[in-house]
Amino acid sequence: MSFTAPIQLPGLTLDPLWYRRAVFYEVMVRSFVDSNGDGAGDLQGLVSRLDYLQWLGIDALWLPPFFNSPLRDGGYDVSDFYSILPEFGTIDEFKDLVTKAHERNMRVIIDLPLNHTSDAHEWFQASRSDPDGPFGDFYVWNDTDEKWPDIRIIFTDTEDSNWAFDSERRQFYFHRFFSHQPDLNFENPAVHEAVFEVIRYWLDMGVDGFRLDAIPYLYESDEGNGEGEPPTHEFIKTLRRMVDRDYPGRVMIAEANQWPREVAAFFGTDEEPECHMAFDFPVMPRIFYSLRSQQADELVNVLSETTDIPDGAGWGVFLRNHDELTLEMVSEEYRQAMYGWYAYDPRMRANIGIRRRLAPLLDNSRAELELAHALLFSLPGSPFLYYGDEIGMGDNIWLPDRDSSRTPMQWTPDRNAGFSSADPGKLFLPVVQSLVYHFNQVNVESQLAQSRSLLHWVRNVIHTRKAHPAFGLGDLTVLSVDNPSVLAFVRHYEGSDNPMGDSREDVLCVFSFAHNPVSATIEIPEYAGLNTYDLFGGAQFPGIGDDGRLTLTLGTQSFFWLHIAPAR
Length: 568
Ligand code: NOJ
Known about the structure:
Layout: H1 18-21, E1 24-26, H2 29-32, H3 43-48, H4 50-56, E2 60-63, E3 67-68, E4 80-84, H5 91-103, E5 107-113, H6 122-129, E6 141-142, E7 163-166, E8 171-174, H7 189-204, E9 209-213, H8 230-246, E10 251-254, H9 260-264, E11 277-279, H10 283-293, H11 297-306, E12 314-318, E13 325-326, H12 332-342, E14 353-354, H13 358-361, H14 366-378, E15 382-386, H15 444-449, H16 454-466, H17 469-473, E16 475-478, E17 480-481, E18 486-494, E19 504-512, E20 518-523, E21 531-534, E22 540-541, E23 549-554, E24 559-565
Parallel strand pairs: 1-2, 1-15, 2-5, 5-9, 9-10, 10-11, 11-12, 12-15
Antiparallel strand pairs: 3-4, 6-8, 7-8, 13-14, 16-18, 17-20, 18-19, 19-24, 20-23, 21-22, 21-24
Helix pairs in contact: 10-11, 14-16
Bound molecules: 1-deoxynojirimycin (NOJ).
């Protein structure tokens, strides 16, 4: 395999912690813009909207897989890691995307599903037809399907076992996801070599990092449950050493849908780091829980538990993504409450989760959308937006599986929402035409034209966050509040790169989940006697008393971001 020469990265700022300050945007190539009228989005289409993303304030794109694939799992079923699905474009077009993104100081993160391949991959075809050949041990084969009964099934809607029988090899193969996605055998050193070669190929092409899809599941064992087994962590450490040595500045992002302590393990330690970032799966469902329970306690607990991570590491915070809103890592009682609130129609469920977009989940309530985004942009970690959520796009629960929230981006009120010039019947998925979220009303063009639209609001919050390094780099202290519906914390940062001119920045963030206006007294003794100012408009707010208390009134489901400082 020959490697392409590394390309220069013109325009990128040399900030080793860039990912801690960045605002990320998940964009499915297939769903964003169709440049050639074939009914599916493509790389050239994405390039044509980089200006829009730059205007919005996006620093990094996360692209779900765009490799060759039978597309039976949205591209997470890769049949060749070295080529691009022809309907999406070519390697040269991908390089063009990277160059044009970098010219805008925007990074490109790709998604690498390394745990498994498609059964159409030539490695698997060779493995099933030639057990003694070079690929014979590339997958996890067994004579029975009774091994590892304790390993949970993830795709409960479609699979009833993690084993499938192969009629050619006459053995069972292990698959953590769909049965057409056999797991690679990480016990085999040749698999490590093959996977490292794939990673280097894309890093050499100039990508700024990769999301490690399904990373807890690389190894299985007789003793464990196959999630985050010790050799899985060893593999990630080795990978991190290679990235730090040969590709400094590029990042590894863990997709580990685990309990808080287990997710944090994917950061490794100061001495032996693993991933630079990990998605904050613990915090996400608790945001939605708080919005309906009107109680802040679940967030208080999880924030207190997950903040202790190695230097330089950072969380990836998100509200929604291309998958179902997963409820695997919450208690049964909690899960039932979430289903009752957010998935009252069984069609809204998928596996152990909810397959809806953000705006419909929040019943299109502007107050809730703002509150949820305010949390997203001020919790510790870097925010990851999902394409279309910035305009409050709807979903289509009549489509199968997670396609419900992967419909074409709504750009204009014109044909196919401006996504494609194809015959509407040819689109890979129909555009949303529901009563509330029809593309006639919900689209980028009309929201650009209204200064008070959600799109302008989101952009404003993004730019406000980016002007205050405390959000990306600062630490977090949860405060005690006398009202259980109110969450309050301080983000604090000291450093030389504060655009506000101070070396120190302290931002008090207060959120009310109550469905009516409330008053709350916050204990904030460290800041006794200081003033508070609204971070957006600069207006002076009540001062913090000499007793270290601050009483605020908050409207229904509202928030404040307040700069704490001496009198101006
Ligand atoms: C996690 C991805 O986010 C999901 O979309 C996919 O189906 C599974 N991994 C399997 O690759």
